């Protein structure tokens, strides 16, 4: 579905990341973790076409319409109702207004927001707004979902619930996912593969970890799986070592 080959991106002369190689196969969930400033979001921006590579390439099996991007902020338009926000992408794709609004209502219902379509974003809780944002993306039927710390602003219980809901939709729609997160437990809980970036600038992929926990995933059951503690310890130790390496200390 997605291949990134020898990718380097940056905002000036020095690359933020370089030599990045990763792959998201069809139907697979992949996470990208690393220290703050390691360029995780820059990789997502390059995949989404928002940032031109300095070198290397992004190979996507499909058009840009096959991408969905779920941001950390919900990015809903405050002057539009929930159903109008969900319908917006469909309208941009020239879907007739009535059909787009009908599809928006259907997706809001699937995500537990039936009856909330007429509310504006400021009239919704943080969890409800996040569900609206998810409905907005899923209504476009993406094949590859890019997510940048999408649930970081939510409290723990709501975050768990919405993450589980999203995992269910990933399975149901056979979506491919590339997630950026700082949460190592979250990465291992949801992913088939986790890539660890080094400290930036010029961050590279230090290691990748195959997560053998069976799918579909249940958040709580996954964290009780026999393989989970060892994987978490290895990922934690590798990331800690990267942050305390002589190279990192010299940069600091």
Shape: globular
Helix content: 25-40%
Radius of gyration, in angstroms, nearest whole number? 19 Å
As for the CATH topology of the largest domain, it is Rossmann fold
Structural class: alpha/beta
CATH architecture of the largest domain: 3-Layer(aba) Sandwich
- Spatial order of the strands in the main sheet? 5-6-7-3-8-9
CATH level 1 class label of the largest domain: Alpha Beta
Mean pLDDT: 90
Care to give the gist of this entry?
This protein has 252 residues and is an alpha/beta fold. It is 39% helix and 21% strand.
Tell me about this structure.
The chain is an alpha/beta fold. The protein has 2 domains: 169 residues, P-loop containing nucleotide triphosphate hydrolases (Rossmann fold); 69 residues. It has 9 helices and 9 strands. Helix 3 packs across helix 4 and helix 6 crosses helix 8.
């Amino acid at each position: 579905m997605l291949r990134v080959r020898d990718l380097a991106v940056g905002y000036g002369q020095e690359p933020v990341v370089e030599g990045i190689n990763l792959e998201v196969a069809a139907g697979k969930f992949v996470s990208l973790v690393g220290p703050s400033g390691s360029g995780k979001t820059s990789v997502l921006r390059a995949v989404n076409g928002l940032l031109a590579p300095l070198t290397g390439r992004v190979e996507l099996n499909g058009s840009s319409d096959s991408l969905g991007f779920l941001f950390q902020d919900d990015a809903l338009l405050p002057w539009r109702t929930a159903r109008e926000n969900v319908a917006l992408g469909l309208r941009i794709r020239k879907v007739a207004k009535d059909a787009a609004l009908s599809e928006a209502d259907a997706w809001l219902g699937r995500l537990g927001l039936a009856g909330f379509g007429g509310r504006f974003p400021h009239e919704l809780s943080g969890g409800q707004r996040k569900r609206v944002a998810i409905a907005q993306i899923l209504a476009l039927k993406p094949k590859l979902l890019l997510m940048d710390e999408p649930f970081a602003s939510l409290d723990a219980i709501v975050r768990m619930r919405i993450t589980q809901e999203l995992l269910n939709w990933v399975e149901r729609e056979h979506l491919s996912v590339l997630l950026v997160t700082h949460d190592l437990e979250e990465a291992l809980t949801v992913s088939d593969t986790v890539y660890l970036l080094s400290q930036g600038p010029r961050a590279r992929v230090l290691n990748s970890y195959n997560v053998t926990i069976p799918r579909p995933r249940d958040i709580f059951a996954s964290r009780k799986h026999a393989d989970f503690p060892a994987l978490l310890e290895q990922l934690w130790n590798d990331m800690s070592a990267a942050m305390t390496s002589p190279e990192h200390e010299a940069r600091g």
